[in-house]
Amino acid sequence: MTPHLIVPFGSADWAAVAPPTVVGVAALVVILADLMLPRRARRISAIAIGIVGLIVAGIIALQGWHHPYVAFGGAFIEGGFAIVFEGIVIVAAIFSLCMSYGFARDDQIGGAIALMLWSATGAMLMAGAASLMMIFLGLELLSLALYCLCGLAARASAREAALKYLILSSTASGFLLYGMALLFGATGSVALAALANPPISAALFDIGCGMFLVGLCFKLSLAPFHVWTPDVFEGAPLPVTAFMSVVTKAGALAAVARFAYAALPQRDHAAILIPLWIVAAISMIVGNVGALAQTDIKRLLAYSGIAQLGYIVAAMAGTSALGLRYAIFYLGAYMFMNLGAFAVVTLLSRENDEGSRLASFAGLGYRQPVLAGLMTFFLLALAGLPPTAGFIGKILILATDVNTGYAWLAVLLIVGTAISVYAYFKIVRAMYARTIGTPVLPRFVPASALPWVGVALCAIATLGLGLYPFAPSDILPLVR
Hints:
By secondary structure, this protein is mostly helical. It has helices spanning about 10-15, 20-35, 40-60, 80-100, 110-130, 130-150, 155-185, 200-220, 230-235, 240-265, 270-290, 295-315, 320-345, 365, 370-385, 390-405, 405-430, 450-465, and strands at about 70, 75-80. The protein starts with 10 loop residues before the first helix and ends in a 13-residue tail after the last helix.
């Protein structure tokens, strides 16, 4: 009699990974539609299928709220923490797709959208990862697709950006993987829950933690692991840059938070994490100082992102429950104000010109006052001025840093914010200043109204979160 193969995973396990599975399947549907539909219908169908798939995945994810489940023997945990990060990835991917109407050639668009969806799938797997192997699987799925997407623009700088990202990211992945190997050697398990037990070798464990965090700090673009970010952001196509600025950070931040809050032994907790808080402090200054000299908006927003992620990681200093809630709140606020700024740049883009040069904003306040006003609003939010979500988020981070005994981080946050005001004001001045001899570009009507939808929704969310700050509860990460 033939023995039956007993599958160790049930329907509940597969239901836990349903949201990333739906996004991954949507990418396959995009590829099939691209093969079957006429060329003129491929672009809009790929974007529509991608957006619908992401919305369906978001609805499925919300159904698991308040119903945490440990799936696949502890490798993946679906619950409030994972759902919030999955939601951030989904929303960011939808807004990025709204900017993708002019992205790539007609014969490339299906593959490009599919790669973007598969990259989002990897970030969603990282959101629920509770084992070292699941973190690495999600990270590589996230990164491999981005290597290809960065080189899709028809210019040499895009190929250069893709090559830089491939080489440096592979190096960081090597640090991450080697750190994981050391952690496995120290604990005898790849589960994050095993890290909370006293390790067999303290030295092996400490070195493994350090290398693991180095790899994640690279993905978060935290200084001094940030040098790739401005060049890659500048060279990559605009929708890809917008996507990377949030989705990559959300996936890596989920892994850092679960590691910091739920996986480390209490006796070594503070000592292991103090380098992470120092890196966050350096990022707040380096990012804002680096933004001062930029004349390309994509590079400026890259340096801005370095500083913003420094603020977010600083919120988790002391690993308090409120600190994690405020970090997630600020990540959501950063998503809206950052993607809103990228959507404005998309609306200024012309054929063979992404509109990211500072000259593209010259006289915008007189050519398109509504668009200039919205861009000013997003820049004020990034600078942390009221009544925006950026202001409220920074106030909450200051409060939690002071309460947990990390007042020096709060001081550096204030210094970094003061520096950033000048960098953002440079763009505002270009939009409203009347400078003799500066060419004023004519008004341009974009090929699609989708970026306008993104700009409007991001502005509403940035203002709404500023007036009514909402930080979800029930989000403490678990590993067992």
